[in-house]
Amino acid sequence: MKPVVLFFAFLFGLQFCYAQKTDQKLKKQIEELISGFNGDIGIYVKSLKTGKTVAINADTVFPTASMVKVPILLGVIDKINKGELTYHQPIIYKDSLLYAGVDILGSYKNNEQVELSKVIMLMLTTSDNTASLWLQSLAGTGTRINEIIQDLGYKYTRVNSRTPGREDNRTIYGWGQTTPFEMANIIERIYRKEIFNDSSCIRMMRLLGRNYWDEEGLSSIPPNVEVFSKNGAVNASRSEVMLVNAPHHPYVVCIITKNNKDQSWDRNNEAWTLTRKLSSLLWNYFEPNMKF
């Protein structure tokens, strides 16, 4: 059997597995927690110790917001693996790259030199949009990134912005789209060193372990515990994916919302509050003897 066919069988098996190995106790607790949320919500949780899962709208397509930077990362790492880019190579910033906002890279002067590795860091750590769009172009356009994602077996995760043929999807989902299952599975496969090669996955884990935006789901995890994460936010959608390398019971979770009634940007936003509560619930469920 061809490798691609084998992988699709593997991915189908994963989806079948999470449907058959549901943690009913945890699912009940999560359903009670999210009851009454004013918007659409999708959650995927998997114990990396037992393989048991909780899937609530886990195959529903949601906006990625800044979680799209995970697929962009894959596109850049693939270029590095092919020798078309090098991790520490100097690249030249141009004013034309600026995406208006409060990003760090946008404060650079025209023709200023910066290492590719630092631009990747800014994309993932501070979620710098100027850096991200630059890296999307360096990865060879959204079309090429989507081909990589498709080759990895993912049906719904795609880059939409600045990607010919995906204008209608961009109108609905914005910069990118994914499902809670697919985004969580990408992070899990990086953790298990199943994407590209071991060294690439190690590099991606180090990059994903430096998240500046640590006041939502990450805030419920003890600071001495390793977490690989990315989050995203636009007015009506908030999202976060985390692989928590807990000492006794590691787990991965992805929560995404859309059509949110509460579109505020303060800490008490309904979706962000729910994300913190979900993260706390999971930490105490999987690590009951390590209260935080």
The topology string of helices and strands comes to HHEEEHEEHHHEHEHHEEEH
Strand numbers in spatial order across the main sheet: 2-1-10-9-8
Quick one: CATH superfamily of the largest domain? DD-peptidase/beta-lactamase superfamily
| Count of the separate structural domains | 2
Label the structural class. alpha+beta
Please give the largest β-sheet: 5 strands, antiparallel
Could you tell me the mean pLDDT? Answer: 94
3D shape? globular
Q: Give the count of helical stretches.
A: 10
CATH architecture assignment name of the largest domain: 3-Layer(aba) Sandwich
Give the low-pLDDT segments: none
**Residue share in β-strands:** 15-25%
| Span of the ends, CA to CA | 48 Å
Task: Give the beta-strand count.
Answer: 10
Q: If you consult CATH, what is the topology of the largest domain? A: Beta-lactamase
CATH class of the largest domain: Alpha Beta
EC number: 3.5.2.6
Catalytic activity: a beta-lactam + H2O = a substituted beta-amino acid
Domain Beta-lactamase class A catalytic: 42-257
Pfam family, one: Beta-lactamase2
Q: If you had to describe this structure to a student in words, what would you say it looks like?
A:
With 292 residues, the protein is of the alpha+beta class. It folds into two domains: 1-60 and 179-287, DD-peptidase/beta-lactamase superfamily (Beta-lactamase); 63-177, 3-Layer(aba) Sandwich (Beta-lactamase). The protein contains ten helices and ten strands. The chain has helices at 3-20, 24-34, 69-81, 116-125, 129-138, 141-151, 167-173, 180-191, 198-208, 270-286; strands spanning 40-47, 53-56, 62-63, 90-92, 113-115, 158-159, 176-178, 227-234, 237-244, 251-258. A five-stranded antiparallel β-sheet has the order 2-1-10-9-8, with helices on both faces. It has a three-stranded antiparallel β-sheet with strand order 3-7-6. Strands 4-5 form a two-stranded antiparallel sheet. It starts with a helix and ends in a 6-residue tail after the last helix. The relative contact order is 0.17. The model has no long low-confidence stretch (mean pLDDT 94).
